[in-house]
Amino acid sequence: MERICLTEINKSYQNKQILKNLTFNIQGSFGLLGPNGAGKTTLMRILTTLVPPDSGEIKMNDNTSWKDQNIVRSYIGYLPQHFSLYKNVTVVECLLHLAVLKGIEKSKAKLEIDSLLEEVNLQEHKKKKIKQLSGGMLRRVGIAQALLGNPRLLIVDEPTVGLDIEERVRFRNLLRKLGRNRIILISTHIVEDVEMTCDYIGILKEGEIIFTGKKEDLKAIVKGKIKEELLTMDEADALQNQVISLKQQEDKCLVRYFNEAQDEQSDVSPTIEDAYLYLTKKGE
Ligand SMILES: Nc1ncnc2c1ncn2[C@@H]1O[C@H](COP(=O)(O)OP(=O)(O)OP(=O)(O)O)[C@@H](O)[C@H]1O
Fold first, then answer.
1. pTM of the prediction?
2. Domain boundaries, the chain
């Protein structure tokens, strides 16, 4: 399996250390989670070669180094959270233009675009102008442009922000499919995106990697530590920052909360969100 190996990556801005000694591997479909300001965007900018780290090393499969920028760029397809496309051209014209900019020969590009439109389910909209597309369709054009040249690493920033529920589900399914035969890195603060799309997870907090591993390993961290009980509002208030969620039920509420006293017999199944909150709120 292909992987990207990061070793002791550091990055500071104006004497503030943003990324602290990051050492971990990215493989398969990998979700990078973290609260606002954790350093996700900074790490993505380093991985897309837009900015260099201050120190440390990144390699693909222990050989190609990120210092070989031109080679690495040819491996990467990138969909930033905010991207703009020419509004008055059709989907096909837009992709053809971007393919040529990527150095793909025109006749090859036409064939590639045809199969990409099939893959992202936009064949029937290919003659529409960009300005006529919905938010979800635009994101799919974004993925198609990122896939031009068949990159080994696809990087997607905040994939579902601004999409309605139907498009969100469709886009997650597409990302899941694309992750089968390449490394796909998704950076987000929406836990559900990762839950639905990724097999591996990394959690960044205040510039440090506090977890990497499989989804199941993440859930195992909070096994036996989650309780669900019908409580009065006063009882729920007393739990303060142990509370994960509350659901009003007549005059009481169903409270899901962290129970530090481990209960191995607990029949509450932990979710990725429980484990994420547990790790990121710890010590606050
Ligand atoms: N170019 C820059 N110059 C100075 N500080 C920066 C720069 N880029 C990022 N930072 C700071 O680095 C920290 C991490 O920012 P970053 O955008 O990487 O986090 P993030 O996890 O992507 O957050 P968000 O989810 O809010 O986008 C923040 O404190 C930010 O202010």
1. 0.88
2. 3-218, 220-282
Render 159-191 in DSSP notation, one character per residue: TTTT--HHHHHHHHHHHHHHTTSSEEEEEES-H
Atom 9 (ligand 1): residue with closest C-alpha?
42
Query: Quick check: CB of 266 below 6 Å from ligand 1?
Result: no
Does the beta carbon of 15 lie inside 6 Å of ligand 1?
Answer: no
Q: For 228-240, b where at least 16 C-beta lie within 10 A, e where not — what string?
A: beebeeeebeebe
For residue 212 and ligand 1, the question of a CB distance below 6 A is answered with: no
Whole-angstrom distance, CA of residue 140 vs CA of residue 145: 9
Residue whose Cα lies nearest atom 6 of ligand 1: it is 13
Closest-CA residue, ligand 1 atom 25, reads 36
CATH topology of domain 3-218: Rossmann fold (3.40.50)
Name which residue sits closest to atom 7 of ligand 1, judged by CA. Answer: 13
Q: Which ligand 1 atom sits nearest the alpha carbon of residue 158? A: 25
Asked if this assembly's ipTM is beyond 0.85, the reply is yes
Structure tokens at 221: 């961290």
Q: Are 146 and 132 in contact (CB under 8 A)?
A: no
For residues 175 and 119, give the distance between their C-alpha atoms in angstroms, rounded to a whole number. Answer: 11
Q: Per DSSP, what are the bridge partners of residue 202? A: 32, 212
Instruction: Give me the residue label for tokens 């909360």.
Output: 257
Give residue-wise pLDDT tens across range 23-38. Answer: 999 999 999 999 989 9
Tell me the pLDDT tens digit for each residue of 58-81.
Answer: 999 878 999 999 899 989 999 888
